[in-house]
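Reminder to self: tokens first, then the designed residues, so the page reads top to bottom the way the pipeline ran.
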């Protein structure tokens, strides 16, 4: 993202689990684990939005297709962490 130049376009598409944790909206990764959310998820602002704002790119389109289900008590702790994608 930091290498984008003026006149270039940036397209980002993500389909998967998204949630709100530690005052940040985050996306899960293939190895996300609910016992280590800080180290196994991606903060959208830090990884996508800030670098994009700091780049020369003026044309961007971001699609986030994230579930917004509540966290259930019986989830498999390996890959299935889901919760709301907001402060609630």
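Designed residues (88 positions):
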């Amino acid at each position: 993202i930091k290498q984008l130049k003026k006149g270039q376009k940036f397209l980002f598409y993500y389909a998967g689990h998204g949630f709100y944790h530690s005052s940040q909206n985050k996306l899960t990764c293939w190895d996300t684990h609910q016992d280590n959310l800080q180290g196994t998820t991606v903060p959208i602002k830090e990884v996508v939005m800030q670098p994009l704002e700091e780049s020369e790119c003026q044309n961007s389109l971001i699609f986030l297709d994230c579930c917004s289900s509540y966290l259930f008590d019986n989830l498999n702790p390996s890959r299935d962490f889901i919760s709301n994608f907001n402060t609630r």
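The helical segments are 37-40, 44-54.
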